[in-house]
Amino acid sequence: MDFLSSFNISGSGLTAQKTRMDIIAQNIANSQATRTESGEPYKRKMVVLKSMEGTDFKTALGKAADNQSKGVKVEQIIEDPTPLVPVYNPNHPDANEEGYVMMPNVNTTQEMVDMMSASRAYEANVTAFNAVKSMALKALEIGR
Fold it and tell me: Of 135, 31, 121, nearest to 84 (Cα)?
């Protein structure tokens, strides 16, 4: 593998994890939104990541050894299919006839755990990027 492909791989990981953190922040910000532009409660969003070569680990490792690895990408952003949470609050303007308000299916504790995971993955990609940069600088010093 050359240095530039290593930078590209780490860069794709940084971009993917940043997107993941943005979606998690959006979920937390809308955790109490009972009405969106469509008139329905907010539904939690999730990021689906995909290896750019779309293969199993063994094949991806072989491609990486042959300098064909391309990193990771955000394949799509999907809505969480879990049901909305009914909360009894008859005074709320969005309450139905029985007095229940449908709240978003966002669990802020789960979102914070996901945010920590995305943050750690982002940090790991920064560390890998810096390691490759350091190796490239050392290689340039050898040429002097």
Answer: 31
The amino acid occupying position 124 is: A
Radius of gyration of the chain (CA): 21
Q: Which long-range contacts (CB under 8 A, 24 or more apart) does 121-125 make?
A: 121/13, 121/17, 121/20, 122/13, 122/14, 122/17, 122/18, 122/21, 124/13, 125/10, 125/13, 125/14, 125/17
Cα dihedral 93, 98, 100, 102 sign? negative
N-term to C-term CA, the chain: 23
Q: Are strands 72-79 and 85-88 parallel, antiparallel or unpaired?
A: unpaired
Is the Cβ–Cβ distance between 133 and 29 less than 8 Å? no
- State the Cα–Cα distance between residues 96 and 102, nearest whole angstrom: 9
Which H/E stretch holds residue 100?
A: strand 100-103
Phi, psi for residue 88 in degrees, rounded to 5: -80, 115
pLDDT tens for 82-131 read: 999 999 999 999 999 999 999 999 999 999 999 999 999 999 999 999 99
